[in-house]
Structure formats: C-alpha cells, structure tokens
Amino acid sequence: MEIATIGLDIAKHVFQVHAVDAAGTVVLRKRYSRAQLVRLFEEIPPCLVGIEACGTAHYWGRHLQSLGHDVRLMPAHYVKPYVKRGKNDAADAEGICEAVTRPTMRFVPIKAPDTQALALMHRLRTQFVGQRTAMLNALRAGMAEFGIVTNQGLGGATEILRIASAGDDRLPELIREPYRLLADAIRAVEARLVTLDHQIAASTQFDDTCKRLSTIPGVGPVTSTTIIALAGDVSRFPTGRDFAAWLGLTPRQNSTGGKARLGRITKAGDQTLRTLLVLGAFSVIKRARVAPEKASPWLMALMERRPPLVAAVALANKMARIIWAILTRGGSFRAPARTS
Questions:
Q1: Please, are residues 185 and 291 in contact by the beta-carbon 8 Å criterion?
Q2: Residue-wise burial string across 37-57, b where 16 or more C-beta atoms lie within 10 A, e elsewhere
Q3: pLDDT per residue as tens digits for the range 111-126
Q4: Helix, strand or coil, per DSSP, at residue 268
Q5: pTM (predicted TM-score)
Q6: What are the Transposase IS116/IS110/IS902 C-terminal domain coordinates in residue numbering (predicted)?
Q7: Considering only CA atoms, which of 312, 318, 255 is closest in space to residue 278?
C-alpha cells in the first residue's frame, strides 16, 4: 500500500485516517484507537500528514515528526470549505486530506513543549482574570441592591472588598458572611494572579527576544511572552501588515467593482494577544495625556481627530508592525527623533 498523503482527524480516544496515493486514489479510510494509530505511523513510510490545529494537535505533530513524517497543522476554518455535505469524522478526515495539498493553504507552526507550556500559562492567567471579574461584578451588583455603590476601576474594587470584609451595617445580616467569603475568594484569585505574573516575568529575565520586545512602549513581560507563545514564527508573514491582519487589527473589506469599502476591524486571530496589545496602547495613550511633550507627534495628532478606542486600536496595529519588524530583523525599538 503506497501512501502519499494522510488526512488525520484527531480526538481523545478515536482517530479517523483518510489516506491517498500519489494519484489521489483513496487507499485507506479507517478509524483507529490511540495505540493502533501509533503503530500505523510507525509501520508506514514517511508521508505528508494534515491535521486540524486544536488542543492536542501540537503533541501529535511533534510525535509524528519524530517518526519522520511531514506534519502540517491547519486552522479549522480553512479546512471547512473542503468538507463535503454532512459532518462526521470520515468526512472531516477527507476534507483535511484535500486541504493539506492546496498550494495556497496556510499552516500553523508546531509549538515546542516549552512554548506550549508558556501558552497554557497565559490561558490560565486569562481564566483567573475572568473569574476575578465575574466575582467582582457579582459583588458590585449585590451591593448596589442595598444602596452601596463605589467607583469603577481598581480604587472602587478595593473599596467594595473592604466593605464586604467589614460586614457593613447597610447589608442584611443574612448576606454579610456570604459576601465575606466572596471577598476572600476574590483576594485568593488575585494572589494566584500575582504568583503567575511573577513566574511569567521570571521566564523573560534571560530571554533576549522578550527583552527586545519589552522596549516597545505598551509591551511588558506578559505581552512579550504571549507573543512568543501564541504568535510562533512571525517570519511566515511577508509584511508587518500581514501580521497585524492575522491579529485582527486591520479593517474588514467589503469591496467590489474596484471600489474599496472598509469597515470595522476583523477581530480575527488570537483574542488574548489582540486584547493585550489594545490594553497596552491605552496605557501609552494615558501617559501621552499626562506628558504630551514626551509623546509621539503621530499619536497626539491621532488623539485629536479620533475617539480614544479608535486611537488605541490604530496604535495597537502600529505596535504589531513594530513587533514583526523586531522579530524578523532583530534589534530593539528606538523612538523616532522629535523635530522642533
């Protein structure tokens, strides 16, 4: 049996294989268990293997590469057009087998174990932030029902936690203890976040790439390590604009007949990385308002004619292009000289 290309649909315990020869003729269409799949790839000669990028795809990619196979991961939404009517494992594997051979297909770099672990650390941090936000919102909403309202932001959160821990007389006796427990849970999550942030910062201490990225205004240890963990090898993007487009920071196009129509940003790509860049841009804008004489003239002009959120997204787009330039060409960020 001669196998040239395999489309592999992976799951936890069941794996669907669709294999074709050099002429495109189907030579194998079968479901395997984990142990059976490993034996199959150990026995067959090296071939091209396509897999949809998902939670366990990087592990299988590394394992099959160690056996000599050419493994290529693809975004699931790029594979979907090649899946015929109906949704099942066999149809998915066939669509993957077809998609991996397309010359215009885009592939996802296979992450090394350390890079994948770093990405999981950031995913865990995002979950902690979400838990803290949800519990704070629940506490704020409950307090408001009894006329206790605080300011937004860090100061307001600190105040409402103090009120909940103190057992304010404005709260009924029945709810005071549950709110104390909720305040303790919020502080526990915050402590875990501090520990995780220290671990992330420590991982950048001896990493030259993270140090160079941190020279960009608005990019700190969390953002720089997230870029390393989630963006992968950015040299696969021909230009910085392509990298910004991958992050979803470029306008959505709806053009026809030679007439360009641009809308809101696409919000494609990784949401965590895009969010961090926009938040970093907001911090740069905040500093520019305090010390405009030290800010970029381009940014000050942008802030004068655009709303804050639009300016932040535009700055995040520019930051993404600078990140691409540093990662592909080396060096660090140098602020342009101000002209008098």
A1: no
A2: bbebbeebeebbbbbbbeeeb
A3: 999 889 888 898 899 8
A4: coil
A5: 0.80
A6: 210-289
A7: 312
